[in-house]
Amino acid sequence: MEKTTLVQFIRRQEKLVDGATGNFTSLMNEILVAAKIVSLEVNCAGIGESIFGLTGKVNVHGEEVQKLDEFADNTFAKLVGQSGTVCAITSEELEKPIIVPKDQAGKYIFMMDPLDGSSNVDVNVSIGTIFSIYRKKTPGDEVTTEDLLQKASEQVAAGYIIYGPSTLFIYTSGNGVHGFTLDPTLGEFFLSHPNLRIPRQGSWYSINEGNVEKWTDKQKRLVDYLKEKDPETHRPYKLRYIGSLVADFHRTLLKGGIFMYPGDRNSPEGKLRFQFEAAPLAFVVANAGGTASDGVKRIMDHTPGDIHEKSPLFIGSVNEVELAESMLK
Ligand code: AHG
Ligand code: MN
Ligand code: MN
């Protein structure tokens, strides 16, 4: 099979976009270079000056910041920030947006969870980066709240990188979902998963059952239903939970089923961030024939009220997400 690099693929896709000026291609090129740098760091974590462990800082959510969180955040922010294609960058790790100086700014807005699954860094389990790209909406140079808080369906592109047994770069710009595997010897991403489609129904569910005591009765009933034996409705489902959203989502995308991070009595909005986790993965799964909900409303239909807003997340095959919505109503 002819080998297509990610750079070649992005350039070809650009031709599909009316009025494309090459800025999107330049932005994606910076993202993939940052991904290679972080991948190298992750794969060497633990050797020499250790990148393992904590920085001793906490982020806006009061979560401990791992050294790799900070390394990934700095790497993506630097390369994307100097690409000349974005006017603002928001990150799970940054309380405030980075506003790019006018003379170096472009028309895109870049949002990221620079390192997802960071509690898994020190135990050598797959982790990742999640990103989302919007277009600046308001005229003029000033970046406004309206630019930074857009409806999820306004995304121009979104994707994630998994630093796992292999480094995978998965993204969509609205023309299908495509995956690329990093060849570490050549330092190139090659097309390995063209046109990914999620099965309409699956036999896997993914949730942290350790939280069961905090769930609502409807959430408990939903999970009990998935575990009951009924061949007619292909139950019981199998449970898989890695604790890195990118890895749990990627398995769901390839095999079907549902990933759930519900709200609970202590945190009704759940744990996951709307703009850095729920919205980008909702855009990816929608372009692969799946869907995502907060349990009541589709993620793609929601406009966040705050950069660091959290959201319950039910994402995966249409069949299972619709089942979840019907039982949670
Ligand atoms: P992050 O490392 O970016 O904070 O994300 C961690 C998230 C997500 O990756 C995962 O699905 C979830 O935390 C796991 O949470 P629990 O450990 O509470 O199950
Ligand atoms: Mn995360
Ligand atoms: Mn993170």
What is the H level of CATH, i.e. the homologous superfamily of the largest domain? Fructose-1,6-Bisphosphatase, subunit A, domain 1
Bound molecules: 2,5-anhydro-1,6-di-O-phosphono-D-glucitol, manganese (II) ion
The CATH class of the largest domain, by name, is Alpha Beta
Strand residues, percent: 15-25%
What is the N-to-C order of secondary-structure elements (H for helix, E for strand)? HHEEHEEEEHEEEEEHEHEHEEH
Main sheet record:
8 strands, mixed
Give your account of this protein's structure.
With 329 residues, this protein is α+β, with helices and mostly antiparallel strands. The protein folds into 2 domains: 6-193, Fructose-1,6-Bisphosphatase, Chain A, domain 1; 204-328, D-Maltodextrin-Binding Protein, domain 2, CATH 3.40.190.80. 29% of the residues lie in helices and 23% in strands. It contains 8 helices and 15 strands. An 8-stranded mixed sheet has the order 4-3-5-6-7-8-9-10, with helices on both faces. A hairpin with a 3-residue loop joins strand 7 (157-163) and strand 8. Helix 1 runs antiparallel to helix 2 (23-43), helix 2 (23-43) packs antiparallel against helix 3 (67-81) and helix 5 crosses helix 8. The longest helix has 21 residues, at 23-43. It starts with 5 loop residues before the first helix and ends with a helix. The relative contact order is 0.13. The model has no long low-confidence stretch (mean pLDDT 94). The site of 2,5-anhydro-1,6-di-O-phosphono-D-glucitol has 13 residues, from strand 5 and helix 6.
